[in-house]
Amino acid sequence: MVKKIIALFICIVLYGATVSAQVTTALPEQNPKTKWFQEARFGMFIHWGLFAGHAGTYKGKKYYGISEWLQHRAKIPAKEYEQFAANFNPVDFDAEQWVSFAKASGIKYIVITAKHHEGFAMFKSMVSAFNIVDATPYKKDPMKALATACKKAGIKLGFYYSQFQDWHEPNGGGNNWDFDETKKDYPVYYAAKAIPQIKELLTNYGDLGLIWFDTPGDMTPEQSAEFLKKVKGWQPNCLVSSRVGNGLGDYTDFGDGEVPAGVVKGPWEAIFTHNDSWGYSSFDNNFKTPKEIIRLLTTIASKGGNLLLNIGPMANGKIPDASQKYFLATGEWLNKNGESIYGTTSSLIKPQPWGVTTNKPGKLFIHIFQSPLNGKISVPLKGITIRKVYWLSNKKQVAAAMTATGLELRLPAALPDLRDAVVAVEYSGTMTENYDTPETWSMQYSEFSLLPDFATVKGNATISPVTYSHYFGDWKHAVCIKNLQLPTDEVSFNIQVKEKGDYKITLEYAAGKDSEGEEGILEIGGQQFPFQVLKTGEHDEWKPLTWIRQTITILSVTKPGSYTLKMMPAKAGKELFNLKRIIAEPVE
Ligand code: FHN
Question: pTM of the full predicted structure?
């Protein structure tokens, strides 16, 4: 029974996705209705509700993790929670200010929680008095003000609506501390509250860009289809997120905090929060820096998707200072480099030691995250004629030449931006997909990563994400190579070693007690290097996962050229580990 409840709980909180190929296709690639969405690339998620008032603390106890789940975690009775509305008074909320902040941050669409799992409507509702206009001293509808401000600023607006979980309603999903699960009649809640409130959102706030459903839980395929149909009936152009459930929706949402492996075709979104919590938490200060945001946005764009990045405003309507500062810094970068993000398509070449690429017809954008010691970077390209090569931020020319292996750039000692310096290449001809290039190693970088995304696997070996969390519900995902159990289960990478020298080879992995002591073999250049697996800890989605870096050998390469690195178990046994990456560090 306990197991069953835990399993249901996991299904409710966690909504993940599994991808295991270099190029996969999500939902239909060509849909004129998703054009704006695919061009937007950067959206702002806003989690705002009564939970913001508690900021993660209840009766003196701090609840680390996602603060909008406070009611669930502290098992606060719905009747008591209802009273919190009397203290919710966002007097500092200014819709115009929020929207101009979003615009200055380079945001193209906003998605805000109109109703989260707590069941409280942040809009005027005739369906339930548990809403911001009728139940709080504020008495105004912030969603109305936001809709007006977004329209004026040309920003698309989307509403998040928790269609299955509603902890305020006896027949809503999720609240099993007030209401008996066995007596719940979900269709009654759908018909009496969820669908009528969604109608209010779709008929009272002008044209919406999208409806962001979440945690479909126990919904049947018919129920998900009904929600989708209703939305389209009220607004045919309004997009619906895949979390409407049962494989439906106009675009794919990956798991919270998940970047899928490789390129994904079709419209999709990666969902991250600026710190670890979605709702405001007064003690969560783990904010992503501008460099981390810019690289995340660029990496996601290079894989063909959007970044929906969340902020958690305070109960008074103020946006946390760190979010204001770091979103605006991202906006400044986008102001100069936005052409390499908005309206681009996914990379045609795989990530390189220096960074990633994005594309537009006749234009290639080279995002440089790190420069090699000799300042020469090589971009594996063929079949195109180069017209112009320049820094996107200042239009100054970059020295470049076509060679037999591709385009070679000569970078100055100081890059224009250490977070992501973008080189624009204008060309004629057609660039073709070129993922089959080997990984390159040379003495010019401090380290190289062989990532699962581009591994070749054989036998039972698979490439899939491993999910874990630090506190509560702050999901992390690592794409890993798994299921290496038999000597025939193999993972391999093709490597082009550009310069002779010594390379220290290290595995980064997590392994449980079953794997402890298992033996593996790493093979390269005709040499075999055995190793024994060390225990780092059991994998539990609700706990942190410990990763170890274990050096296997220092490889002396006397001749530059092509090599294959392979790894497999030495003999049949338990699976070796969850392998996150193989690191090669040139030895100076
Ligand atoms: O349970 C929610 C959570 O509170 C938050 O809203 C996230 C955002 O993607 N969605 C659910 C968990 O996946």
Answer: 0.95
